[in-house]
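INFO worker-7 received task bundle
INFO bundle size: 2
INFO processing item 0
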Amino acid sequence: MPEAYVSTRYDGREADTPAGAAPGPAGTTVPHPLDNAARASLTGPHAHFAERHGRVLRYPVEVSPWLALPDEPEPADWAGIAALAGPGGEVPLLGHRGAAPQGWEITFDVAGVQMADDGVAGAPDPEAVPLGPADVPEMLDLVARTRPGPFMPRTIEMGTYLGIRRDGALIAMAGERLHPPGWTEISAVCTDPAFRGEGLATRLILAVAHGIRERGERPFLHTGAGNTGAIRLYESLGFRHRLDTRFFGVRVPLGS
């Protein structure tokens, strides 16, 4: 698949190597941490969250629904998914490019894009305030009304979340989700419909990106391939298309 981004080493320096790979020992290459971002996160900075069955990893379901397969899954890995999710359990897979085994129901299959920092000028925002556990009920309500993507009762534990309030009510938010080495995903970007058009999403993306850069890391994000308005916004902020990806969901057979 065509690649539109120069790969980086894990330390964030530019690597003069084919896109999607980084230099390893003795001239070998290792996968870029964003190629399988959920797995790189769960084997890296988010390893303390990881629930494992064989080679299959996942977040606790109240933190995030994403489950991470190896790059080349084998039958034993699908058996590991079944053991973790249980018969009839629905499992979302980020970036899985293969087919599901026979008898597994596909519950959704959506084309997506991954966009990575290519000069994002993060900036703090004076109106953005940190959100904490006490804010989760309002955050869940805002997510239910705006549907920015998965956000669970403990998703806030994945990183920093910022919000904007008006008259005490939470009207916009954005925060951090996957955390591969050297990178942090910006996610849950949403604005109450009554306040759209004020640039709140842009301000919060830049504020979250500022915090990521302050740690010496780089921001990235995902969106649907058909979400052309969001893609144009992200490009205007300094994100660049890195790869085409896939949001793919399967249901474990009841007999598993």
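INFO item 0 finished
INFO processing item 1
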Amino acid sequence: MRLLLVRHGQTPTNVDYLLDTAAPGPGLTELGERQAAALPAALTGEDIGAVYASTLIRTQLTAAPLAADLGLEVLVRDGIREVSAGDLEMLPGDTEAGRVYMRTVFAWAAGDTELRMPGGESGAEALARYDAVVAEAAGSGAGTVALFSHGAAIRMWTAARVGNVDVAFAGAHPLENTGVVVLEGSPEDGWKALSWAGAVVAPAGESGPAGQVVGGDAP
């Protein structure tokens, strides 16, 4: 199957560069609304059979134009919400708080899943909830599923679960608002990334904190 991981449209706290991860969260800016409205045309070549969104309002608002265009219901699932910032919630993302948040997310992707976000969830918990929704989508019978989620969560999960996306690649490649990662595969056989925000993905050697580059040595 094809799995389209779509980051939500721009929010006011993206503009203010805040670690905003709690539900229900803010809506979209005017730009975010335009980004969401452009998605049906951008994805017109995809035979999408199901649309999922997280419990944060911004993903549901971003998914709504596509779902309406396709005549589909938006299936809301908590498991694909943003990585909880815990004690770092609403702190500026361009400070040490933001660096701790993203370093923790990518430590999980690298295998340190027992590490816990300060005052928040562990990597094992975050991956398990995301895995569960991906498994549901894969079992839906749809050949292509659009899953509307969040920048840090998408980058973390793909670095941990997708064969040709490693931590260096995901850390070095921010995912802009309404950026789309196209995957092919299944939970049983594994996943391969076909493109990352429109770019072809090769094996790897800014719009809010979840869209920043992580690590100075990544290519």
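INFO item 1 finished
INFO post-check item 1: Strands lie at 2-7, 50-53, 74-76, 144-149, 180-186, 190-196, 199-200.
INFO post-check item 1: The mean pLDDT is 92.
INFO worker-7 idle
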